Amino acid sequence: MALNFVKRIFDQFFKDMFASRKDLKLGLYGPPNSGKTTLANKICIDSGFDAKELGSVSALAHETREIQIKEQISLKNKDGRELLFNLVDTPGIATKIDYEEFLKAGMSENKAKKRAREATKGVIDAIKWLDEMDAVLVVLDATQDPYSQVNVTIIGNLQARNIPVLIVANKVDLKRANMKKVQAAFPQYEVIGISAKYGKNVKELYDKVFKLVK
Amino acid sequence: MVTLHFMPYTEIESLSSVGRIRKLLTVAKENKIVLLQGRLKKEEETELIKTTMEEINKEFKGIELAVIHPALSSLSGFQKLKNDLLSGILGDRQGLTIIGPASVVKAIKKDPNKIELLTSERRSRAR
Question: Which of A5, A210, B98, B111 sits most deeply, having the most CB atoms within 10 A of its CB?
Answer without folding.
Answer: B98
